[in-house]
Amino acid sequence: MQDIIDLTRFPLDRPDSPEWQAMVARARADLAREGMFDLVGFLRPEALAQAVADLAPRFDAEAFTHARKHNIYFRKDIAGLAPDHPALTQFETINQTLCADQIGGVVQRLYEWEPFARFLAAAMEMPALYTMADPLARVNAMRYATGEGLNWHFDRSEFTTTLLLQAPDKGGDFEYRTDLRSPDNPNYDGVAKLLTGQDPDLKRITLTPGTLNVFRGKNTAHRVTPVEGNTPRIIAVFSFFDRPGVLFTPEEQIGFYGRAA
Ligand SMILES: [Fe+2]
Fold first, then answer.
1. CA of 173 to the centre of ligand 1 (A)
2. How far is CA 179 from CA 30, 33, 66, in A?
3. Residue spans per domain, the chain
4. C-alpha 149 to ligand 1 mean position (Å)
5. What is the pLDDT of residues 194-243, one digit of tens each?
6. What's the 222 CA to ligand 1 centre distance in angstroms?
7. Does pTM surpass 0.90?
8. Topology classification of domain 18-257
9. What is the Å distance from ligand 1's center to 64 Cα?
10. CA 17 to ligand 1 center in whole angstroms
11. Over the range 216-247, which residues count as b (16 or more CB within 10 Å of their CB) and which as e?
């Protein structure tokens, strides 16, 4: 893996070393404080260039264009909330998606590398994490061209692991509002305030290519702003679960990818 990741800086291969422990401790502290952590420069520049070169023709030829209208909950209605409540405002999300069976090379190798899952589990303070069995969902690559973005939502999964492969010239920023809701308090009025641009606690980060980002998005609302300019935003998304063998149903596969495996 030394050709993909600088293992001196990021010693994922040495889980018994003090350097590994320190990396995990930093990640945990960042997660506790910010709800996310970044490993800037995680992927070597040559590996990054290779990954983009591998994916670009496949995006052009065979990606699924995923366009959908959704609210922040990805649900049609919410019990106890009037259909016209501003928390249910609909937004549009568009991207091109490649599935695991269309992705090889660097991105696939990293996903399959067991020390990667081991490090993520330690950072998330979970006993173990496992790659998915789903032939489409295991690892995805998304491309956002000009005008496209990922609109406001809460994640359905506990955490999300992404690797930015290419940054746009402008736009494509990651915006988030930490702990906008909690398991006891859905805070619909707070959600409405965010969606109408009136939340002073909104934060924004611009990721650099090669950065690994791990994000707790279940209660932290987030979006990727529309891309501007001719360079698309390209990001790899890795899916891990607390148990092996997780599969999507054919209906879920069609919903996310336009086809079943
Ligand atoms: Fe998300």
1. 13
2. 15, 11, 28
3. 18-257
4. 12
5. 999 999 999 999 999 999 999 999 999 999 999 999 999 999 999 999 99
6. 6
7. yes
8. Jelly Rolls (2.60.120)
9. 19
10. 32
11. bbbbbbbbbbbbeeeebbbbbbbbbbeeeebe
